[in-house]
Amino acid sequence: MGPLDRQSRFCNRTSAPRANLILTVLAGFAVLGGIAAFLSPEALLAVISATLIVGILTALVVVSVATGDAGDHASDLEIGRMAEENRHAAVLRERLRIARDLHDTLAHSMAAMLAQIRLIKKLATAAPERLVEELERAEEAALAGLHEARSAVTRMRYQAVRDDGLGAALGRLTKRLRLRKNIQIELNVDPRAFVLADERAEMVFRVVEEAVHNIEQHAGVERGFIDAKVKPDTGNGCLEVIVRDEGKGFDPSSYTIGHYGITGMREQLAMIGGTLLIESALKRGTQLTINLRL
Which tens digits make up the pLDDT trace of 91-106? Predict the structure, then answer.
């Protein structure tokens, strides 16, 4: 039995004795009124009036108690329903995160190795002298995939944003790309965005990581930009993160079955109440804008 069930039963056990006590008091007044009327008929009208007044007040109290208990029980049920929905949402977010990591690592690595294997098969008869060179490249692709897989496992265990904040996590991301891929990402994070460190900021970081990965894999340039700031808004403001490049670009309206990068980013942001705007055109670069009300 859960805490809410125990609490509901406790309310039922405590409200019943209160109602019984009130009804007992009312019955006592009725008995006393009858005795007084028998001993002094002149006081009958006063006794009846007093008994009616007490009865009305008692009925109001009983109704109030019953209504309050019903309201408490409904509130308990609503809290339980919301808790269950939150647990379900957390499971879905975790599944999406794992799917994205698999997409980033295994899918890209396997595609690269498959391309190398197909090329080697063609060279085996057309240009066997190039086999050694292409086998070395295939080995490099396999090693890179293994490194990415290990990095993905590390990311699953280590919550970068919740441990150190959004700004520090983005700084490490851009540094890692600069050292490993020689891709320069210009990073600008305002102070309010820098210190964000909750679960939703972690999700935003994962989406930005995917967007930067797309620059690395598809933009055809070695430079990109990330701007993160908290804009004034109702409540605690609105986090806006822009990731852009000046590369090849693409047609956002086209959708390739089996390509889950953009779909996954939208799903992750939707789970936390955020939005993703994609602006791109062929040979005009790409800009992704994330908005999340804090």
Answer: 666 666 666 666 666 6
Taking each helix axis from N to C end, the angle separating 44-102 and 261-271, rounded to the nearest 10 degrees, works out to 160
The angle formed by the CA atoms of residues 238, 241 and 246, to the nearest 5 degrees, is 150
Q: Which listed CATH number (3.20.20.70, 3.30.565.10, 3.30.70.1560, 3.30.2130.10) goes with 160-294? A: 3.30.565.10
Which residue in 228, 112, 218 sits closest to 173, CA to CA? 228
DSSP 273: T
Least confident of 113-117, 160-164, 184-188, 258-262: 258-262
**CA-CA distance, 54 to 239, in Å (whole number)?**
60
Neighbours of 21 (CB within 10 A): 10
Q: Where are the beta strands (DSSP E) in the chain?
A: 184-189, 223-231, 238-245, 275-280, 286-293
Quote the CA–CA distance of 213 and 215 in Å, as a whole number: 5
